[in-house]
Design brief:
alpha+beta; five-stranded mixed β-sheet; 13 strands; disordered N terminus; globular; about 350 residues; about 20% helix
Length: about 350
């Protein structure tokens, strides 16, 4: 993907995950499914996977060992990285994609990249050598990864690493209309990630105490099966998905497709149609499939709901129209607190 398509994601991670239900952490599940009990229905499996592989990734601390003042990017607990991988893999499983593993050789460079962002109160995929705490390794990770930074003291040390994953998948803001961060994490050929996070409770930014930053490196890990997964990649997917993870931006991706004249329609199970504001029509490039991105207007999910999506007038491929069903099952709570969303800043 060309550099111009790499957009910096600035996420304020000042609040933790708040949900009414909780479950024990299932660290033996890699996030690739909802359990192997043959007596469970597909919906029950989806609900179990949500509890085990999404709720189950909540952290108490990232265990950062570094120090901002001495430009020591430090390390994280193995539990933190395991849960970041687990949450990325969970989102991929929703879309029928294989799980990723951890590329441990890249963790140090991701730590360096995260420290550069926090130390300089900025986000950039090409940090200059004059920046505080700059390293070549940090530059390399920032150039080929997703980066996030946030401020606030509510709970940045506990959950900012996993909240960053959800931020990349949501991909909000005017500069992220092509959902590039999401597309990289949902790339078919992505086989592994490197990840790093830093936190400094004494760091002050615009009067807010505490700062956290994250980097997930994907650029050197695209050596998986380029034909893995379903015929198309959609988010929200043509499958069961918890209602809190149905984000405002929807997308549909298909190899080598031309969406320049495509149309999108969304209607729910009662037949109500929703106006779809198409915000991006992205051609294929750099290993990421062509995609169309839209924002359906007025959707509010307060119970289990199905949405029929039709993407039509697709050019450049043999099949010109696709219709699929998004099956949102209702869960209480929100993916991130409303206060966090209001404070979110995007570059």
């Amino acid at each position: 993907m060309k550099k111009s398509l790499l957009f910096s994601l600035l996420i304020l991670l000042s609040a933790g995950l708040v949900l009414s239900a909780c479950s024990k952490d299932d660290d033996d599940d890699d996030g690739g499914g909802g359990g192997d009990d043959p007596n469970l229905t597909d919906l029950e499996k989806a609900k179990k996977s949500y509890q085990d592989n999404y709720i189950g990734t909540k952290l108490n601390t990232i265990g950062w060992t570094g120090n901002e003042a001495s430009c020591n990017s430090g390390d994280l607990s193995s539990e933190t990285r395991k849960k970041v991988v687990k949450r990325v893999s969970y989102y991929r499983s929703l879309c029928g994609l294989p799980a990723v593993t951890l590329n441990s050789s890249q963790n140090k460079s991701c730590q360096d990249a995260a420290l550069i962002m926090m130390a300089n109160n900025t986000l950039t995929h090409t940090p200059s050598s004059g920046m505080t705490c700059w390293t070549q390794a940090g530059y390399d990770a920032a150039k080929t990864g997703n980066i996030a930074i946030g401020w606030g003291s509510a709970e940045p040390d506990a959950n900012h690493s996993i909240n960053a994953v959800s931020g990349y998948i949501e991909d909000p803001g005017a500069h992220n209309k092509i959902v590039g961060h999401r597309a990289w994490l949902l790339a078919r050929e992505l086989s592994a990630i490197g990840t790093g996070s830093v936190y400094d409770g004494s760091h002050n930014y615009q009067g807010m105490q505490g700062a956290a930053a994250n980097c997930i490196r994907w650029g050197d890990n695209r050596n998986g099966n380029s034909t893995a997964g379903p015929e198309f990649i959609a988010y929200p997917p043509a499958a069961y998905i918890p209602s809190v993870l149905v984000f405002p931006r929807w997308h549909f991706a298909l190899p080598n497709a031309n969406f320049s004249s495509s149309t999108v329609s969304v209607k729910d199970g009662s037949g109500t149609s929703y106006n779809c504001n198409i915000i991006a029509r992205e051609s294929q490039g750099g290993g990421i499939e062509a995609r169309i991105v839209w924002e359906p207007q007025g959707i509010a999910i307060s119970s289990d709901m199905n949405f029929e999506v039709t993407v039509g007038n697709i050019q450049g491929v043999s099949k010109t129209s696709y219709t699929y069903i998004v099956k949102a099952f209702y869960v209480t709570g929100v993916a991130r607190k409303a206060t966090e969303k209001r404070k979110m800043l995007i570059l």
